Amino acid sequence: MSDVKVPAVEGWFTMDEANPRLVGNKCTSCGTVFFPKASIACRNPSCDGTSFEDVELSNRGRVWSYTTNHYAPPAPYVSPDPFEPYSVAAVELADEKLVVLGQVEGGADGLKVGAEVELVLSTLFTDDAGDHVVWKWKVVA
Ligand SMILES: [Zn+2]
């Protein structure tokens, strides 16, 4: 652990640990929300919008599907040694109804389709630059 926390991917989420939010964007023509952010052109097939504004997304949602990985992914993924199985959940955001993938904090306990989860920040790995932080989903007790 380090005193310095840096986002593992820049601009995809806020670094407010008490209330982290994913950052997507919204088409200024049709209002469709995207995560990851849309660029160049709106992905709504019936819209020709090309301008977007950043929006912070719901930090709660419900598990739409999930899986548990029992094998270490290849590099550049940084696995703990020894490898520990981890779960990945596809979560439907409460307001936007977008489905956003993320690792699950705290293992698979309580993880099931329909379970309510909240967004948390978690350290992926630490190096000389500090703690590299990503978002994870955590089952709401
Ligand atoms: Zn649009």
Tell me the layout of helices and strands.
Layout: E1 5-7, E2 23-27, E3 33-34, E4 52-56, E5 60-69, E6 86-93, E7 99-104, E8 116-127, E9 130-139
Bound molecules: zinc ion.
Describe this structure in words.
The chain has 141 residues and is mainly β. It has a domain at 58-139. Helices cover 0% and strands 43% of the residues. The protein contains no helices and 9 strands. It has strands at residues 5-7, 23-27, 33-34, 52-56, 60-69, 86-93, 99-104, 116-127, 130-139. The strands form 2 sheets. A 5-stranded mixed beta barrel has the order 5-6-7-9-8. A hairpin with a 5-residue loop joins strand 6 (86-93) and strand 7 (99-104). The chain starts with a strand and ends with a strand. The model has no long low-confidence stretch (mean pLDDT 93). Bound molecules: zinc ion (ZN).
Question: Would you summarize the structure shown here?
Answer:
The protein is mainly beta. The protein is built from no helices and nine strands. The protein binds zinc ion (ZN).
Number of strands: 9
Average pLDDT taken over every residue: 93
Largest sheet: 5 strands, mixed, barrel
Number of helices: 0
Poorly predicted runs are: none
SSE pattern? EEEEEEEEE
- The class by helix and strand makeup works out as mainly beta
